[in-house]
Design goal:
Elements: E1 5-9, H1 19-32, E2 36-39, H2 67-75, E3 82-89, H3 95-108, E4 113-118, H4 123-128, H5 136-152, E5 156-159, E6 164-168, E7 181-184, H6 188-197, E8 201-202, H7 210-223, E9 234-238, H8 250-263, E10 267-271, H9 280-294
Parallel strand pairs: 1-2, 1-10, 2-3, 3-4, 4-7, 7-8, 9-10
Antiparallel strand pairs: 5-6
Helix pairs in contact: 1-9, 2-3, 3-5, 6-7, 7-8
Length: 301
């Protein structure tokens, strides 16, 4: 049986824009024994001053580190830590460029890359990147198929709704052929997309009713004609107050892991932002307590 993974979510809005501090954070969580480091994707933020009704969790002041660039940097200063994009908003990006960047990163990090994709929620980004908002779901479906071809075939000819490729290919190719693609999001559409097309599902769900949530997802995978073992679920465990709930601690992580394990999930990723932590050191203290609680395998760094 595959080991239950416990990942660390990169505290992007609460870590300083300092290359050394970012390197030290990644090396620290690797040394603690976490399976992977996850990072979000937002390329541009709205100015709240000109949008008084803005409801999004991020804006133009929120620090966001482009995941493929961040992980390319960290791939050279870590040895075993897996890198997970959680999530890249793929439909607002050019597919062939994603393929090229991810193929290079997969090579640089020695195949330690897992891509999480989603459709996003921020119309401001789609507008700024000159990509249509309305057909983002259909675009993502086609992107997944085209990306897998680009990472697996030496040359590709594609005539789709959104893509035209005339006998062309990537070089160098990634180590993983293809690179795993997981689907993020909590909406039914995201769950169904993960069931149909994903190598897994990475939602933000509460542990309440976890067994029913996992069973529902597995049922959707079977309905898509697939083996549920080929499309596992890893949930993000949120310790902060962004969702309106109370601040949570290590005991809550322990309880959630037990629930998700029993429900049949393959792992969790711990998200420490929006909890009132004021420094990278404080985030690492929380991650160290979690690593100690689960006796994660420590490695030198």
């Amino acid at each position: 049986m595959t080991a239950f993974k416990i990942g660390a979510y990169f505290p992007h809005t609460e870590i300083r824009a300092d290359a050394v501090e970012i390197r030290d954070f990644a090396q620290a969580v690797e040394g603690m024994g976490f399976s992977y480091l996850a990072n979000a994707d937002h390329v541009i933020g709205a100015n709240r001053a000109s949008r008084p009704d803005w409801q999004g969790p991020y804006d133009s002041t929120s620090r966001m580190y482009e995941p493929l660039v961040l992980f390319s940097y960290l791939s050279g200063v870590t040895e075993r830590l897996e890198f997970v994009t959680s999530i890249i908003i793929a439909p607002q990006r050019q597919t062939v460029l994603i393929a090229k960047q991810a193929a290079n990163l997969d090579l640089f990090c020695g195949g330690r890359l897992r891509l999480g994709f989603g459709t996003g929620w921020n119309t401001v980004e789609y507008e700024a990147l000159s990509m249509p908002w309305e057909d983002r779901g259909a675009r993502l479906d086609e992107q997944i198929r085209v990306l897998r071809r680009l990472w697996s075939e030496e040359t590709v000819t594609e005539r789709g709704r959104f893509h035209t490729i005339s006998d062309a290919g990537l070089a160098p190719m990634p180590l993983q052929r293809p690179i795993p693609i997981w689907i993020g999001g909590v909406a039914d559409a995201a769950m169904r997309r993960a069931a149909r097309l994903g190598d897994g599902w990475m939602p933000f769900l509460s542990a309440d009713g976890a067994a029913e949530k996992v069973a529902r997802y597995r049922h959707a995978v079977r309905d898509a004609g697939r083996d549920p073992a080929a499309a596992p679920l890893e949930n993000v465990v949120h310790l902060g107050t962004a969702g309106g709930g109370p601040k949570r601690g290590v005991d809550d992580v322990i309880a959630d892991v037990a629930v998700w394990k029993e429900a049949g999930a393959s792992g969790v990723c711990v998200y420490t932002m929006n909890r009132g932590l004021t420094s990278t050191a404080e985030h690492l203290t929380v991650f160290q307590k979690i690593a100690d609680a689960f006796r994660l395998s420590k490695t030198p760094h």
